[in-house]
Fold:
Amino acid sequence: MLRLRPYKKEDAGRIVTWVTDHDGFSTWCADLLDWPLTEASLEKCRLAFEEQSDGWLMTALDEDGQAVGFLMMTRADYRKNSLHLGMIIVDPACRGRGLGTAFLKLVLSYARDILGMERVTLRVFAHNAAARACYQKAGFRETGLELGCFPHGEERWDCYSMEALL
Structure:
């Protein structure tokens, strides 16, 4: 059984092991954090989110209570009943078993049932086909493609916008 709870400082020790190369790091967080990923950079992110009224960090836990997923919920708009997701990641050791889809479905249920949201959005780099497929299985659909929106070294990455209507 997968569980969802607010992110805690002690989750950082596991999460930092999930990102081992700069391309993977950029694909995951669009360089919103400092590279290389450290527990200190996640703590800085946690503290920043504590100052926000429209966003928070969440962790997915497995049946043993171990962190197996992480994401940020942000841009909560209670007038438009919408929410944006970002920095979605699943422990690489758990990938390929449907855990990411289950995680996103749990997040969508939380957004609908607890937060009263009607629309959840996210963005995903075009080259991240596995994540796009996971999001589609969870109920997201593509709503747009922005070409060359993210500079990464000598490249410019394309990015899909996606939404789930609840």
